[in-house]
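Deliverable D2.4 — example input (C-alpha cells):
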C-alpha cells in the first residue's frame, strides 16, 4: 500500500499555481487510467472482433499514462500536461480514423472539446488555441477522407 501511495504522491512545490496544476494533473491521469482499464476491459468483452486493436490500444495507453505520471512526479509539470493533452487528442484521432465506427459521425468527436478544455486548464489560453487548431485540422481531414 505504501508503494501505491508514494507513487501517487505529488512532488513538493512552492508555487501555488504549480500545486494547482499538479493536483489537477494527478486527478486527470488517475481518471484516464481508471477509464482506460475499465473501458478497455468492457470493449474487449463486448467486441471480440476488434480484440487485437482494443487490447493493444488499451495497454499502450496504460503504459503511456504511467510514464506521464512519472514525468509529472519528477517535477516537469508542463511537459506532463502537454503529454496528457496530446495523448488524449491522439487517442480520439486514432479512434475516429481507424476503429470500426470511424468517421465524423462518431460521437467520440466531441472528445476534442474535452482536450481543448483540459489544455486550457492545465497549460493556459495559448495551449487551448493550439489544441483547438489541431482538432479542427483533424476534423477537416476526417471530413475530407469521408467525402473523397
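Example output (designed residues):
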Amino acid at each position: 500500500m505504501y508503494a501505491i501511495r508514494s507513487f501517487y504522491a505529488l512532488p513538493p512545490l512552492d508555487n501555488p499555481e504549480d500545486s494547482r496544476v499538479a493536483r489537477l494533473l494527478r486527478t486527470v491521469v488517475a481518471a484516464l487510467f481508471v477509464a482506460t482499464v475499465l473501458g478497455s476491459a468492457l470493449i474487449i468483452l463486448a467486441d471480440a472482433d476488434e480484440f487485437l486493436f482494443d487490447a493493444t490500444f488499451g495497454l499502450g495507453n496504460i503504459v503511456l499514462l504511467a510514464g506521464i505520471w512519472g514525468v509529472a512526479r519528477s517535477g516537469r509539470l508542463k511537459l506532463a500536461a502537454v503529454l496528457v493533452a496530446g495523448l488524449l487528442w491522439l487517442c480520439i484521432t486514432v479512434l475516429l480514423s481507424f476503429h470500426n465506427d470511424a468517421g465524423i459521425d462518431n460521437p467520440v468527436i466531441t472528445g476534442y472539446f474535452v482536450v481543448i478544455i483540459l489544455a486550457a486548464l492545465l497549460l493556459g489560453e495559448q495551449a487551448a488555441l493550439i489544441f483547438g487548431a489541431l482538432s479542427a485540422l483533424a476534423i477537416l481531414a476526417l471530413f475530407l477522407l469521408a467525402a473523397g
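The mean pLDDT is 88.
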